[in-house]
Amino acid sequence: MPPDQPVGAPDDPTTPGSPSTSDTVATADGPTPTPPVSRRTVLAAGIPAAVGLLGMSALTSPRPANLGDPMGDRQLTSILTPHLGGHRRVAVAHLDGSGEVRFAGFGADENTEFEIGSVSKTFTGALLAEAVSRGEVTTRTTIAEVLSNEDTSEDAGGSEIADVTFAELATHTSGLPRLAPGAFVGSILANFLRKDPYAGRDADQVIADALGCRPSGRGSFAYSNLGVALQGQLLARAAGTDYASLLTQRILEPLGLGGTYAPITAEHLRGTAARGHGGSGLPHAPWTMNGSAPAGGIRSTAADLAAYLAGTLDGSAPGAAAASEILVESSATERHGMNWFHEDFGDGTWHVHHNGMTGGFAAFVGFTPATGRGIVILTDTARSVDALAVDILTGEVAL
Fold first, then answer.
1. Rounded CA gap, 153 and 324, in Å?
2. What 3 state SS string does the chain have?
3. By 3-state DSSP, what share of the chain in percent is helix, strand and coil, each rounded to 5?
């Protein structure tokens, strides 16, 4: 997904993994979705999560970015430098397919903390796969079923999205909008002030927002941050805990990902948290995203994401099935797992990926199952790194 930020979405349907659609096709669970536009088209469309920010930032003078000093693998830094104009601090991890991981950085190393935006959705996908493996839910479990023992059960039963399933939420085919209608105006103001547009809406509010929505185009692909935020909060409810605790207990601790966490609110940011920069170079406040954290509020490091990718690749990570189990066959070149996008970028090979963008950061994680190669790119500037990452996966940029 590209980052779509005009209204505060960390990433929208315009980057890898979230295009618009047309004809319907059969799915494993839930209604039939629509195939998205070619990823090449999506990548060319730009960075949605930053579109609004960039427009507002244009009112101020741009601040030239200086790429940080190179560190780590010299071959990687030499190859990557020409592709990183406009960026400041960048951290990269490359899985070479043999089990080795190489790190390179510019003003950052493999343990530097970044916001990862919608890459967070893949962790929420892993939590869904893990909940399925534990028998807590299935991909066909509906919103009303999860909330049946909650105080909101009456509202859930009467909601127009009561029978929406986890499969639909995890593949952006639920018919829910990208952002809750009630959060629209506040998001625009927050973006203008370079603050977190999601800060004021907690988990209960996210659920209430979603239950109050009238689905539109259900069964067709329409990138929805609200839908994935709801997915994460429902999984937490099903497990009897909160999202941040569920993430830590089921994914982060088992994998030893000590540099990864979901702060939820600004008060829980670590001392390692730094501000990112918009496309104009102006600093932006951290996005912790409160109740919408399952859709984009996780912070991580290149080292942690490399370990996460490796475990997802070989199936050893909790919830690794999220990346391998296909829920929607969109077209001959596009498929959807649980919050992961599968795509043939024209090289005849399937690649699994997700991107992310917040007000001041951009990210991309992806891997190629056939070769075992993977890439992590993190930057503290809201400029897309999607095209570079895809070229690395396809071999157009050889590392």
1. 33
2. CCCECCCCCCCCCCCCCCCCECCCCCECCCCCCCCECCHHHHHHHCCHHHHHHHHHHCCCCCCCCCCCCEEECHHHHHHHHHHCCCCCCEEEEEEECCCCEEEEEECCCCCCCEECHHHHHHHHHHHHHHHHHCCCCCCCCEHHHHHHHCCCHHHHHHCCCCCCEHHHHHCCCCCCCCCCHHHHHHHHHHHHCCCCCCCCCCHHHHHHHHHCCCCCCCCCCCCCHHHHHHHHHHHHHHHCCCHHHHHHHHHHHHHCCCCCECCCCHHHCCCCCCCEECCCCCEECCCCCHHHHHHHCCEECHHHHHHHHHHHHHCCCCCCHHHHCCCEECCCCEEECCCCEEEECCCCCEEEEEEEECCCCEEEEEEECCCCEEEEEEECECCCCHHHHHHHHHCCCCC
3. 35, 15, 45
Output the CA–CA distances (angstroms, integers) from residue 142 to 145, 153, 176, 238, 392, in the order listed.
5, 12, 14, 12, 39
Pairing between strand 114-115 and 101-106? Answer: unpaired
Q: Which amino acid is at 218?
A: R
Pair 229, 197: CB distance under 8 Å: no
Rounded to two decimals, what is the model's pTM?
A: 0.87
Q: Are 295 and 289 in contact (CB under 8 A)?
A: yes
Provide CB contacts within 8 A for 382, sequence distance 6+: 3, 5, 47, 49, 50, 53, 54, 276, 277, 278, 279, 284, 357, 358, 359, 360, 361, 362
Contacts of 331 (CB under 8 A, 6+ apart): 25, 35, 36
Q: Which amino acid is at 102?
A: R
24 pLDDT more than 90: no
What is the spatial distance between Cα 340 and Cα 16, in angstroms, rounded to a whole number?
A: 10
pLDDT tens digits for 27-69? 333 333 333 334 433 333 233 333 333 344 444 556 778 999 9
Closest CA to 121 of 251, 23, 211: 251
